[in-house]
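Much of our argument rests on the idea that a fold can be written as discrete symbols. In the encoding step, the backbone of a single protein was reduced to a row of integers, each denoting a local shape. This step matters because it turns folding into a mapping between discrete strings. For completeness, the protein is quoted in full, as a sequence line and a line of structure tokens:
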Amino acid sequence: MNKPLCRISGQPLTKVVDLGRQPMGNGFLLPEQFSSEYFYPMEAGFCETSMMFQLIEQPAPEQMFHEQYAFYSSTSRFMEQHFAEFAQQVMQSGYLAKSDPFVVELGCNDGIMLKNFAQAGMRHLGIEPSRNVAEVANAQGVRTLSEFFAEDVAEQIVRTDGQADAFIAANVMCHIPDIQGVVKGIRTLLKPTGVVMFEDPYLGDVIEKISYDQIYDEHVFLFSAHSIQYLFNLHGMELIDVQPQKTHGGSMRYVLAHAGAYPVKETVAQLLQQELSIGLHRLSSYQTFSKNVEQSRSDLVNLLRDLKSQGKRIAGYGATSKSTTILNYCGIGSELIEYISDTTPIKQGKFTPGVHIPVRPYEDFKANPPDYAVLFAWNHAEEIMAKEKAFMDAGGRWIVHVPKVQVL
């Protein structure tokens, strides 16, 4: 068997993490679909040339992003506020043209961020491959194209709308296996003075917090400043700023431009040095991470079994793509977790991918709360804890696995 190659450098990948046989992260399903469920080996590799951490095998995009896609960004008030602030930063950045600026967002989902530009009367375009969420965006007055972005789509946009002042994205770039094609498209689409601003879960936080649930089918890459710098340098672009974010348990916002268009801020050199100091460039760091992941699995399974042996009721909170990784890697099914509570209507009444735990409406959690709730949506812990004061006041306890398995 040929050794897998890095999607960026073309050099051989070294396997560093094996999370076993996994289903589609967002593939919530009905009982009649159990027998035809798709699985694949979820392994991650590291390339010492590009310093890119990536899935070795990823399902086809059409299997992940389609008319039944089960994630709508606007279900989180915290994210709505975050994206409003992101939009304001872009508008006030000084990078946009003073007259008739044009902003393009990749993976605009239901328009949660781009609606801020629409409401400001700014020329905009969203690109969203999942048709069902693209329709929601268009219905909200956010001009949206349902396509997979590449150089040919960029050329089409330039013909109809002209070049863009800003190309933005949030929690999207890390989903795209043909990231080279996307960067070529960005280079074509951007004005000479244009900028790219995007954010994704940050590899440094994943390694530090042992948040291995950030690895799932959609996340083909986990980025660092080193890997982003390497990728964009290949296409005549450079990293000019980095801005840490709290979202998704630790994200990084990257600002890039055509080489030489703007001065490079000191934040870039500082983050690059920090990454070297924590060993993000070394294979040994990922081998240590893999051992930490195995320990996290043992700790979580042992805790759940112990609580069940005491007759405690355990539910999950948040039927996330991240929870799919945890449940399947740890082999946790309905024998340990009774159900998972989720507010997303398209998931309710279905079952979790792979291990088939029922997903129930949030009202069920409120009406008959469990003794313990596994906080799968741990990256929204602050927002959830504030909302669930009654659950905690009645004696309900939270189980978290990041940065370590513990009861709160």
